[in-house]
Amino acid sequence: MKKAIVTGANGYIGTWLIKELLKNNVEVIAIVRNRDSKIDTLPENVKILYVELNSIETLVDLVRDRDIDVFYHLAWDGTNGSDRADYQLQLLNAQYACDSAVVAKKLNCKKFICTGTITEEIAKNILNLDINAMNSIYGVAKHTTHCLLEVLCKNLDLPFVWARLSNIYGGNNLTGNIISYTLKELQQGNKPSFSKAEQPYDLMYIKDAAKALYLIGKENTNESCYFIGSGSPRILKEYLLTIKDIYGSNAEIGLGERPEDGLEYDMEWFDTTSLKRDTGFTIKNTFEQNIQETINALQEVKI
Predict the structure, then answer these.
(1) DSSP letter at 48?
(2) By CB distance 3.0 to 4.6 Å, which of 35, 73, 88, 190 could disulfide with 114?
């Protein structure tokens, strides 16, 4: 891989992916919404184009290159908080992802990669579940987008990979996901509260996730969908208690203080066999090492 386009380039995952691409001598065209968007996390040697998602088709004229290896579509509105339950916003994301695939084909890109979420697995069976979880619409929208892109990219004759992510942590993650929330509460001297946390999880370090995304773009992939994980999932409370132990003796974790949300996870969802087989991906360090690095970095800034 010598050249790549990345939408959502100034986002949390986009920023780290671009660092990984540059480290491997990949030329990057970074797509950012507008000139009011923050770009201070992006390296200086990146070509930036300002394009709103609702006019993504203008890239066909703005990008002169026709030798782009991979189009990474990471841009997605409403990944946090109440926006996850905004069906209008989430439906637009599905449209923009499909529009981006059409643009990738017109630009003669060799591969189109879009990112998903582990909550898609719950969305697959949503009609049989008696739940009202806030993020169910987000998961349904991701699952729908995955299905749409599978059909669309086949019709376009565009090689396509859906990269399914799960609970990314580390670096400058302030998204409020489970690790971000936990560390913020601990840093402020509070006790983070959870359910019994007996579900299986796979918490993925951002540097490893970026490496996996790079390898999916670089290698000749055989599957249209890969789960990006550490390969060593654990029960959630084991992760949380590890964080408590590493953070220090004064840290408290409130297990069982919140009601269960009714969502059930399956350990099989976190299988990385195909990812390792087709890309050679392996994680660099253990969760303990990565969370210690994350804690050290957060102690230098106020979150």
Answers:
(1) E
(2) 73
